[in-house]
UniProtKB/TrEMBL annotation, chain A:
<dbReference type="GO" id="GO:0051301">
    <property type="term" value="P:cell division"/>
</dbReference>
<dbReference type="InterPro" id="IPR030379">
    <property type="entry name" value="G_SEPTIN_dom"/>
</dbReference>
<dbReference type="GO" id="GO:0005525">
    <property type="term" value="F:GTP binding"/>
</dbReference>
<keyword id="KW-0547">Nucleotide-binding</keyword>
<dbReference type="GO" id="GO:0005737">
    <property type="term" value="C:cytoplasm"/>
</dbReference>
<feature type="site" description="Important for dimerization">
    <location>
        <position position="230"/>
    </location>
</feature>
<dbReference type="Pfam" id="PF00735">
    <property type="entry name" value="Septin"/>
</dbReference>
<comment type="similarity">
    <text>Belongs to the TRAFAC class TrmE-Era-EngA-EngB-Septin-like GTPase superfamily. Septin GTPase family.</text>
</comment>
<keyword id="KW-0342">GTP-binding</keyword>
From TrEMBL, chain B:
<keyword id="KW-0342">GTP-binding</keyword>
<dbReference type="GO" id="GO:0051301">
    <property type="term" value="P:cell division"/>
</dbReference>
<feature type="domain" description="Septin-type G">
    <location>
        <begin position="36"/>
        <end position="308"/>
    </location>
</feature>
<keyword id="KW-0547">Nucleotide-binding</keyword>
<dbReference type="Pfam" id="PF00735">
    <property type="entry name" value="Septin"/>
</dbReference>
<dbReference type="GO" id="GO:0005525">
    <property type="term" value="F:GTP binding"/>
</dbReference>
<keyword id="KW-0131">Cell cycle</keyword>
<dbReference type="GO" id="GO:0005856">
    <property type="term" value="C:cytoskeleton"/>
</dbReference>
<protein>
    <recommendedName>
        <fullName>Septin-type G domain-containing protein</fullName>
    </recommendedName>
</protein>
Length: 440, 354
């Protein structure tokens, strides 16, 4: 038996949970064994779902939510809930584990660090404002050409707390003004790579330290790199920058200010850039593969996403009137560019990917791949330092050196050093004793 | 047949100009958690015959205990305490979990039970050690397999009087390294009044001996937690009855024990507190139990180990002794000379400490 319940976004019902409970209790006498009820409700908040699940578990008939699907249906989004009725015997209850985890995460909140890099005037700040619906750059003063002559690449952090539907996000934007602006841009990415490494090092120290209760994760989770639309593909500075960073951070290349290109030009440029990325061996962020058990629609969206990279984006700080609605856009004499119109640019794809579907994966790849590589390198360098140390004093910069997989050489060396230390200590004691005797 | 119920409101535009979508990260996390699955390791401690295996089977509604896995092994009391782990992959509504039940046959069964808790303490510390070793590895696994004991259910025999010296000894030593959930076993021998007075006595004795059982007061995170946990603390230890036999009562099939004077329904809260234990352990506090193990008990162990291994690497002793949380209330000896054998050697000495 299928029961469909539809409710639209502008009609948030505080009685939603009551309604569902009522329906369930009403038809439950007719349910035998395992049957399912499908309830659709559009744009519910996660909190509501959690509440509903708790009610379902507490009710006599032990309902539970098997699967949540997001279904795009015409003008609204539906969230599909599939309930299963379990006979008491089989039901243990650890299926609430994901919710227990979530409850903790919701309390704690999330954090995300996003870096933006590219020459001045590529629309980085505007895009960030459009993505997160904030105004992070209110009091910014733009430098003129003269002032920029002696400017070096700076690293500036902006932090903003965003809350939506009960979920808290501490967003940090790392800006890189000055990148690529000088006459001689040799190694202009060095301050950026240094910054990223510093964050890794800080995390490494914290993680190896004694008190790990409140480690702050300042590692850069993602770097949006803005490629100018004016050229014919990647320039040398683009290639060198991406190659310097591709093993330290997730790079997502974007075609900036895409409203100066026609659809054909965009397609050609994208193809060209993808080719060059392959040719130069640049490892940009790869979207993870879809599971085989995902629904077709999800797989289709995923495929489209992958074929669309690099995203051609437009940002805007202004709201204009288009087709009877107020939207973010840019007003030109020949028409209005709408930022969130998918036929105008890939902004929506970028936002959905960055925030709504891959934010967690970006963090995971940073932790599991980039950070682990840094850490492994760091440790290997330290053990090399121990090996080369001809001095007698041996102090490790961090509280513990991993010895679980030492090579035999290192262990022997450590043993030798320890014996040396012991001998020196004995000699010192003898000398002190001799001096003491002399004095008497 | 389809019954279509529709409450229709205004049509909303697809462009959501005021919605970023950061709450979607919860769904992303859930997806990942579902893919990865969960782990839960629970230890059962108590004299033989207190119904430990049956209770495990009842809790997880399937044969997860050691006895069920090796049904033909003769029941005999081992000469020393043994540690036997049995793992099962269970699934419910798409959530997969690797459940490990750690049994401790021989505990409290000897004539002389002095220090019978030591092998258990060693086992728990061994799990912390192997996690630590994996964590400090150079090329460590993406997801370190978690064999740490998350929860230890301690079975108190239903004497109705008070805790025995063995109970106090065990819980005093182990409550500092693992989450202990004490239960009154085979509670169908106690009337409700006897049960309540027994529980009160137990709670008082725990307090008098400074034993903090789960949920520990000092780890309540906020007022909401404290409120929920206070209610639980007023009820510990839970008086439980286990069963894997089904009977028909009032038209429903329930788990229970049938006697001449009536049928005890395991999941009926009027009969025993099994349902509360199950809810606590599985439905509401499982993640919290794991969190306390990871972020408090394990960290305490880790800090202690780090401070020890620091002795190896600085040629002068530290100016002031580092703060070392004691696992068992005993002072620890600082070795006079650094030992060149690496971190592993120290561990052997400590785990047998009294």
């Amino acid at each position: 038996m299928t029961v469909c319940y539809k409710k639209t976004q502008n009609n948030p019902s505080s009685n939603f949970t009551d309604k569902i409970t009522h329906i369930l209790l009403f038809i439950s006498p007719w349910l035998r064994g395992t049957q399912h009820i499908r309830c659709t409700q559009s744009c519910t908040s996660f909190q509501e779902l959690l509440k509903l699940e708790i009610i379902a578990y507490k009710s006599e008939h032990k309902y539970g939510i098997l699967r949540k699907n997001k279904v795009q249906h015409k003008h609204t989004e539906h969230l599909c809930l599939l309930f299963f009725v379990f006979q008491e015997k089989q039901y243990v209850g650890f299926a609430t584990l994901p919710n227990q985890v979530h409850r903790k995460s919701v309390k704690k909140g999330f954090d995300f660090t996003l870096m933006v890099a590219g020459e001045s005037g590529m629309g980085k700040s505007t895009l960030v404002n459009s993505l997160f619906l904030t105004d992070l750059y209110k009091d910014r003063k733009l430098l003129n050409a003269e002032e920029r002559i002696n400017q070096t690449v700076e690293i500036i952090k902006h932090t903003v707390d965003i809350e939506e539907k009960g979920v808290k996000l501490k967003l940090t934007i790392v800006d890189t003004p000055g990148f690529g602006d000088a006459v001689n841009n040799n190694e202009c990415w060095k301050p950026i790579t240094d910054y990223i490494d510093q964050q890794f090092e800080q995390y490494f120290r914290d993680e190896s330290g004694l008190n790990r209760k409140n480690i702050q994760d300042n590692r850069v989770h993602c770097c949006l790199y803005f490629i100018p639309p004016f050229g014919h593909g990647l320039r040398p500075v683009d290639v060198e920058f991406m190659k310097a960073l591709h093993e330290k951070v997730n790079i997502i290349p974007l075609i900036a200010k895409a409203d100066c290109l026609t659809p054909n030009e965009i397609k050609k440029l994208k193809d060209r850039i993808r080719e060059e990325i392959d040719k130069f061996g640049i490892k940009v962020y790869q979207f993870p593969e879809c599971d085989s058990d995902e629904d077709e629609e999800f797989k289709q969206l995923d495929k489209e996403l992958k074929e669309c990279t690099p995203f051609a984006v437009i940002g805007s700080n202004t709201v204009v009137e288009a087709r009877g609605q107020r939207v973010r856009g840019r007003l030109y004499p020949w028409g209005i560019v709408e930022v969130e119109n998918q036929s105008h640019c890939d902004f929506v794809k970028l936002r959905n990917m960055l925030i709504r579907s891959h934010m967690h994966d970006l963090k995971d790849v940073t932790c599991d791949v980039h950070y682990e590589n840094y850490r492994a390198q760091c440790i290997q360098e330290m053990t090399r330092y121990v090996r080369n140390e001809s001095d007698n004093r041996m102090e490790s910069p961090i509280p513990i050196l991993p010895l679980s997989t030492p090579d035999v050489d290192t262990e022997k060396l450590i043993k030798m050093k320890d014996e040396e230390l012991k001998r020196m200590q004995e000699m010192l004691n003898k000398m002190q004793q001799q001096m003491h005797d002399k004095e008497q | 047949s389809t019954a279509f119920v529709q409450w229709v409101g205004e049509k909303t535009p697809i462009s959501d100009t005021s919605y970023v979508g950061i709450d979607a990260i919860l769904e992303q996390m859930r997806r990942k958690a579902m893919k990865q699955g969960f782990e839960f390791n629970v230890m059962v401690v108590g004299q033989s015959g207190l119904g430990k295996s049956t209770l495990m089977n009842t809790l997880f509604k399937s044969k997860v205990s050691r006895k069920s896995v090796q049904p033909n092994v003769e029941e005999r009391i081992p000469k020393t305490v043994e540690i036997k782990s049995v793992s099962h992959d269970v699934e419910e509504k798409g959530v997969r979990m690797k459940l490990t039940v750690i049994d401790t046959p021989g505990f409290g069964d000897q004539i002389n039970n002095e220090n019978c808790w030591q092998p258990i303490m060693k086992f728990i510390n061994d799990q912390y050690e192997s996690y630590l070793q994996e964590e400090i590895n150079i090329n460590r696994k993406k997801r370190i397999p978690d064999s740490r004991v998350h929860c230890c259910i301690y079975f108190i025999p239903p004497t109705g009087h008070c805790l025995r010296p063995l109970d106090v000894e065990f819980m005093r030593h182990l409550s500092k390294v693992v989450n202990i959930v004490p239960v009154i076993a085979k509670a169908d021998t106690l009337t409700l009044e006897e049960r309540d007075s027994f529980k009160k006595t137990i709670r008082e004795e725990l307090r008098a001996n400074g034993i903090d059982v789960y949920p520990q007061k000092e780890f309540d995170e906020d007022a909401e937690d404290r409120m929920i946990n206070d209610k639980i603390r007023e009820m510990t230890p839970f008086a439980v009855v286990g069963s894997d036999q089904e009977y028909q009562v009032n038209g429903k099939r329930i788990l229970g024990r049938k006697t001449k004077w009536g049928t005890i329904e395991v999941e009926n809260i009027a009969h025993c507190e099994f349902a509360y234990l199950r809810d606590l352990l599985i439905r509401t506090h499982m993640q919290n139990i794991k969190d306390i193990t990871c972020s408090i008990h394990y960290e305490t162990y880790r800090v202690r180990r780090l401070n020890e291994s620091n002795i190896l690497f600085t040629s002068n002793p530290p100016d002031h002794p580092a703060v070392q949380p004691k696992a068992n209330g005993q002072p620890e000896e600082q070795p006079a000379t650094p030992q060149p054998n690496g971190v592993a050697a120290q561990h052997e000495a400590l785990s047998h400490e009294m």
